[in-house]
Amino acid sequence: MKKKVDPKNQTEELNRAKLEFIKRNNKELQKIKELYETNKKKREDFINNLTSIKGTQSKEIKDSWDFLLREQFFDGEFKDKIKEITIPPAANSAYPFTWFAVENAHHDVIPDKHMSRNTLNEKYLDYLCQHAREIFTELTNGEPSSYLLVGIDLRRSKDVIISEFENLPMVHNLNKIKVLTTKVPEKRFKWLSNVDELTEVWDLYNNAGKQPARITFKDTARITGRPLSTIKDQWRMAYEKIYQIQYTPGLKYASEEKRADATQLCAKCPHGAKCYRGEDWFPCNDYLKIVGKEKNEFSEYMDDVSNSKVEENFCEDLERIDNIEYNPSYKK
Question: How many other C-beta atoms lie within 10 A of the C-beta of residue 199?
């Protein structure tokens, strides 16, 4: 059943959906895990070095830097990957003072000690100007023409800030400003209310075992109580969201890239030579699932038949799916 998404929760729901799709893309998920571990190691090394600048190791100072830098990235590739897969919020913020403090850690940046408030403001303004491009890129998620810049005085209370923000002329008349300036079409996320249905169809399909796709789709329609045409559309939509490309019949066939990915899987396999029986090699289901189906003249002909929609059902029978634990209706 479709669920209505509250506008206040749209970004959260978009990122939840993104996570669900990534979890079903094993190659992408493994890459993110590896980058996360690299970033974690660099972060720990950085904080340890920062803590010992003055020659002493203080748990209190370390905990403070750990808190201040909790949302910072220390590996460029990991930062780029997170930015790539994360749906940015409709309202964003940046607080460059953290990195200003890091770069000036050998000085005391607290104004009531070694630095006056005016000196601190001058130095911080110089820092902002020097790093303006990086700061504004982060603040506007790389799309400055689509963003409204707002300054907030952190010395004021939260209630005052929210109240005055809502009464800003440019915020109050946001619809008029969007028409006159950016002319950017509003993003629609009609599929967002169907995420649970998309992942349900995808999981049922992948758990169907070795049987024709036509049968699998019919079984899925029966299990979910949704029309067969809807099930097929939802499976294709799920494929597009998981792999970031539209599904075409050619994607089920083997390619050099897929073979390379499968070879990497074999290199990490804990079962060693289990796939060998004497000198003969019998690849496991995981390997075959990654590589896909070998293409021949008959399969090319049947793809042509499918594309011309002459015999769609028969061509669907050729679509191969691997996995286990399913009770197809045609065996009952």
Answer: 19
Return the axis-axis angle of helices 117-130 and 132-139, rounded to nearest 10°: 80
Phi, psi at 24, each rounded to 5°: -100, 5
CA–CA dist 323, 209 (Å, integer): 4
Beta-carbon neighbour count of residue 316 at 10 Å? 18
pLDDT above 70: percentage of residues in the chain:
70
DSSP type of residue 187 = P
Distances (CA, A) of 185 to 175, 182, 259, 268: 12, 9, 41, 46
Alpha-carbon distance 19 to 242, whole Å? 10
- Please give the angle made by the CA atoms of 301, 303 and 308, to the nearest 5 degrees: 100
73 Cα distance to chain centroid? 16
Distance (Å, whole) CA 235 – CA 237: 5
* Token representation of residue 172: 């109050």
On whether the pTM is more than 0.90, the answer is no
Mean model confidence pLDDT for the chain: 77
